[in-house]
């Protein structure tokens, strides 16, 4: 996929997103492919292993390596998840939710601040999909995200599909969730497809095309918050490049319709939509292990 993508350099893609964990300490073909992509596209970065809900101290040497990588691709900010992924020496390769408590707010804000200092650039957190109720009112998740953003004075990497999946699994109006998000905090968005099990439970697999409901929520979100870079995530059951690009074109259409409809804010970048082709092609193994 990476070879085909780089041979075509498709115009409908505006930027690529990569996981530093797949490049730090690694050269060769991966780095050469990334450098070729950088010749044509801006690169955004998104982490998988430095969750802001963990209580373990950061590995400072790894953070220094991540910073050097971000510098090398000129990343404007870096995002990771509002989650924890392990404890002690155990790492579960999953993005586990944290309770919506004041203690969690303090823990996350402290880690975000520490990461921002170490990486010397803005840091954003991504909202999760999760599968057990964590509060009587599922909108408490949005309020919790806002609290963390305010305490850390940081950005939000808003995953629209995660909001949609949670809304269907826990029975709330996803627009009310979006309505609680302060527009000035959001620097980027994700969309993806997900699995609908026979019992109705939705699992955030990134292994299906983006469904109509997620596009509709993206349309609402863009109209409400204004234009932001939107990434199409696809990490499992990756189709042909032609099929992926057809999805990107649909995403571009939704984006153009929503952002030319009276939104007054100026986009923070000129990018519109993208595919994670570089990410999926070169890093699908580690990303696929991480349920988002
Ligand atoms: Fe995401």
Brief rundown of the structure:
The protein has 292 residues and is of the alpha/beta class.
Structure explained in plain terms:
- With 292 residues, the chain is α/β, with parallel strands linked by helices.
- The chain has a single domain, classed as Divalent-metal-dependent TIM barrel enzymes (TIM Barrel, Alpha-Beta Barrel), CATH 3.20.20.150.
- It is built from ten helices and twelve strands.
- The protein has helices at residues 2-8, 28-40, 60-73, 102-119, 140-152, 160-170, 174-179, 212-225, 241-259, 277-288, and strands at residues 16-18, 43-46, 78-81, 84-87, 90-96, 123-126, 155-159, 186-192, 195-196, 202-203, 230-233, 273-275.
- The protein has an eight-stranded parallel sheet.
- β11, α9 and β12 (273-275) form a beta-alpha-beta unit.
- α4 crosses α5 and α8 runs parallel beside α9.
- It is globular.
- Mean pLDDT is 88; it is low at 262-292.
